[in-house]
Amino acid sequence: MYRTARSFTYRLFAPRLGGRLGIALDWGIMTLIVINILAVLLETVDPVAAAYGRELYLIEIVSVSVFTVEYLAHVWSIPESRTYEDPVRGRLRFMLSPLMLIDLVAILPFYLSGVVAVDARFVRALRLFRVVRLLKIARYSETMRSFSSVVRSQKEKLVVAAAMNVILLVLSSSVMYQLEHQAQPELFSSIPATLWWGAMTLTTVGYGDMFPVTEWGQLAASFIAVFGIGLFALPASILAAGFIEDSQSNDEQTRSDADGSCPHCGESLET
């Protein structure tokens, strides 16, 4: 009976194993997460908080209760997985995984604010951590799981692209500092201060609070802006290529499951 209940709980929360009931549970928790985040946002609006404070607090209590039960159910049932089959060490390793740490951070502020005697500023900081609950959607959304898989598969390319962007940011800011420091010593006072201009220019935001006034500075800024558009768009293109590969892989897996063939060699898996 114990193993049956644990196995049922594990399959209920595991992706693609819970059936219709698991899908309904996923959508229910995602809906609760969205409602909870809306409540957290509305709490910062003084008139709404004053008029509907009890209702917002009730949403918080219900949300924390559901998230706590969900967290404990995950920890209790995880030995059903071969990766975490050891009842003690497996559970500890699972509790230290990124998604479980997010789940813990999502509920911990509620209990800490009620147990630990701290000043109001620290309580407010803890309550802001409830926004982390939005990250819980990654566990239940197939699209978010796909995004996480794509990031992991393309991480080396993304690291290289990020490094190139940082190098370009530092170089462009250094050049602009040399060209504009004498003309605008208050704005372009140092290379670290000029990094703000570099970031806003390379990302094409351009708030207009810092801009070159010398001819050489304007010429350099033009080249930097054009070059930055392509380089800062590189991570987006890497992710797009990763999504295409992931989609094609899923399509091949779906076709192989339908006709009973191996997705790699194409031979029939039927015996």
How would you describe the overall organization of this protein?
- The structure is a single chain.
- Helix 2 (19-43) packs antiparallel against helix 4 (53-77), helix 9 crosses helix 13 (234-259) and helix 10 packs across helix 11 (191-202).
- Helices cover 74% and strands 0% of the residues.
- It has two domains: 2-140, Up-down Bundle (Four Helix Bundle (Hemerythrin (Met), subunit A)); 141-271, Helix Hairpins (Orthogonal Bundle), CATH 1.10.287.70.
- With 271 residues, it is an all-alpha fold.
- The radius of gyration is 26 Å and the shape is extended.
Mass-distribution shape: extended
Under CATH at level 1, the class of the largest domain stands as Mainly Alpha
Briefly note the CATH topology name of the largest domain.
Four Helix Bundle (Hemerythrin (Met), subunit A)
Would you identify the CATH H-level superfamily of the largest domain? Answer: Voltage-gated potassium channels. Chain C
Proper CATH architecture of the largest domain? Up-down Bundle
